[in-house]
């Protein structure tokens, strides 16, 4: 019976396994909380909660990178606002602040792509009775970005083997020739390949889809949704509980 055994991607295994609907709801809560919040402390609590969740989902390295990125943008925002607040740099601070507020939701979106399979997303959407006109483009889009990331890493390695290091600033012409042109060709090819693969796997089949992984709400899902609601209320109240 060995042929019935299904291989599980160990990179996606963590302490908890969240339902795709829970992650979409968390993205919605984080967007509401981060743009309504008027306190930097409540933003810290929100971002720390998201990073802890990503670590529990099995993507510790990614959570550390996003935490460091968020800290850098916060530091730049504080420095520019404090020491260059009366100059044109204040416009730069506005852009940095906007990127800083997008990072929490972007982190959850990346966690969704890295920890949830496309088939699980389609099954969860079918349970919510989401129209297929929305489900199919969204699932293809979620599969498209990881494929482009794989091509990007392969092109970067090929450039490194040829001694092209340092990026656009060190080799502007060669970078355009050896990186951007292959990336554009790869993006077009990947789009055609994903479309053919989706049709071959019966993505347009009107019947109910099945999956080898059970998609349902668990204790971790309810706990995350309650914590997300509490953090959202905290952000709306400006960091004050009472």
TrEMBL record:
It is found in: Membrane. It is a multi-pass membrane protein. Pfam families: CbiQ. Keywords: Cell membrane, Membrane, Transmembrane, Transmembrane helix. The keyword Membrane applies. The chain crosses the membrane at residues 21-41, 47-76. GO terms for cellular component: plasma membrane. PANTHER family: SLL0384 PROTEIN. This is Energy-coupling factor transport system permease protein. It comes from Kineothrix alysoides. The lineage of its organism: Bacteria, Bacillati, Bacillota, Clostridia, Lachnospirales.
